[in-house]
């Protein structure tokens, strides 16, 4: 099998911690010019937008020079540009750095902040903010944490080392501990290990459990309880989408603030940060695959429904 030639480095710098878009001109097209292809390809940009960007020199080739509108189409070449960033409401909570060395950055992510750019969340993501704030344009995420979940996320400083850290998660060599606040059920026998098969279909917000070979395993423990609430310790062995939320819901104790389980509720308006999902990635422990050092990191965050139940219930600011 012939190895695919890697693309050349981006000739444009990042903007607000966000990489430029890279397009490869495909083979088999019938376009005479680059302009014709870009207009046909970027239909979502709106009428006249691509032409205006070409006139302004906002599309560049591998040499960093502006692509001329009537430049002949050449399959296999690359074009870069910066997409207009969507309007985003800033997430008004700090993104704390727990650890930083020449290989990794461990951040303590707040609720509502996505890990990496996706959809309508681009600049308001942990990756973009850390790249910008720390001056580390090559920073990449070794794994992801749901936007609604707070806690520890591991990032890699050097692109060539990212695979080694991603392998830790793939091979389940990272001990992850989560904390959640949910209703207390005295009839629920804990601790226990929950095993089920979870599927998440594209275009469907909530994941669901189905019959079949288990692909999701979670150890569930009750740390303490009071006033009808429980503080749960969750130790996942696998990493299926929404796994912890699905498993606690299946046990009859859905996590407080969850907009998907047990039922999908209406979307929260942008800027409404009042009721975050009460789920926290509390600890990360692993042996560094590059240095051999043993790491154990802990989040400094607390879950408001437990630390200040009255505030969570809306009885005080």
Q: Topology, pairings included?
A:
Elements lengths: L20 E4 L9 H8 L7 H7 L22 E4 L14 E5 L3 E6 L16 H9 L5 E2 L8 E7 L5 H9 L4 E9 L8 E8 L8 E3 L5 E11 L2 E8 L6 H8 L28 E9 L6 E5 L5 H4 L1 H4 L5
Give an overview of the whole structure.
The protein is α+β, with helices and mostly antiparallel strands and 317 residues long. The chain has seven helices and 13 strands. The protein has helices at 34-41, 49-55, 126-134, 162-170, 243-250, 304-307, 309-312, and strands at residues 21-24, 78-81, 96-100, 104-109, 140-141, 150-156, 175-183, 192-199, 208-210, 216-226, 229-236, 279-287, 294-298. A hairpin with a 6-residue loop joins strand 12 (279-287) and strand 13.
Concise description?
By secondary structure, the protein is an alpha+beta fold.
Task: Give the key terms.
two-stranded antiparallel ribbon, 317 residues, 11-stranded mixed β-sheet, 7 helices, alpha+beta, 15% helix, elongated
Global shape:
elongated
Roughly how much helix do the residues carry, as a percent range? 10-25%
Radius of gyration: 23 Å
> Secondary-structure element order, as H and E?
EHHEEEHEEHEEEEEHEEHH
How far apart lie the N and C ends? 62 Å
Low-confidence stretches: none
Could you describe the largest sheet, including whether it forms a barrel? Answer: 11 strands, mixed
Beta-strand content estimate: 25-35%
Q: How many strand units?
A: 13
Task: Return the structural class.
Answer: alpha+beta
Mean pLDDT: 92
| Secondary structure tally, helices | 7
């Amino acid at each position: 099998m012939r190895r695919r030639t890697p693309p050349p480095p981006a000739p444009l710098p990042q903007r607000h911690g966000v990489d430029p878009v890279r397009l490869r001109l495909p083979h088999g097209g019938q376009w005479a010019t680059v302009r014709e292809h870009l207009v046909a390809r970027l239909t979502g940009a709106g009428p006249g937008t691509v032409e205006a960007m070409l006139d302004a020199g906002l599309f560049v080739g591998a040499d960093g020079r502006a692509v001329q509108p009537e430049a002949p189409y050449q399959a296999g070449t690359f074009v870069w540009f910066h997409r207009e960033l969507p309007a985003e409401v800033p997430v008004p909570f700090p993104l704390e750095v727990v650890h930083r060395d020449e290989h990794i950055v461990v951040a303590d992510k707040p609720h509502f902040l996505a890990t990496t750019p996706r959809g309508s969340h681009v600049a308001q993501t942990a990756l973009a903010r850390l790249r910008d704030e720390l001056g580390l344009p090559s920073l990449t995420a070794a794994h992801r944490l749901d936007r609604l979940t707070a806690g520890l996320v591991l990032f890699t400083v050097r692109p060539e080392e990212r695979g080694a850290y991603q392998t830790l998660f793939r091979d389940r060599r990272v001990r992850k501990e989560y904390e959640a606040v949910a209703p207390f059920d005295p009839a629920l026998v804990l601790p226990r290990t929950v095993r089920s098969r979870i599927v998440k279909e594209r275009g469907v917000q909530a994941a669901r459990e189905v019959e079949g070979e288990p692909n999701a395993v979670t150890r569930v423990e009750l740390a303490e309880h009071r006033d009808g609430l429980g503080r749960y310790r969750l130790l996942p062995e696998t990493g299926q989408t929404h796994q912890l939320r699905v498993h606690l819901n299946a046990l009859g104790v859905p996590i407080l603030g969850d907009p998907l389980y047990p039922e999908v509720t209406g979307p929260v308006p942008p800027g409404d940060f009042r009721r975050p999902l009460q789920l926290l990635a509390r600890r990360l422990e692993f042996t560094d695959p590059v240095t051999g050092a043993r790491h154990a990191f802990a989040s400094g965050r607390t879950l408001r429904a437990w630390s200040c139940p009255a505030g969570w219930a809306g009885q005080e600011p």
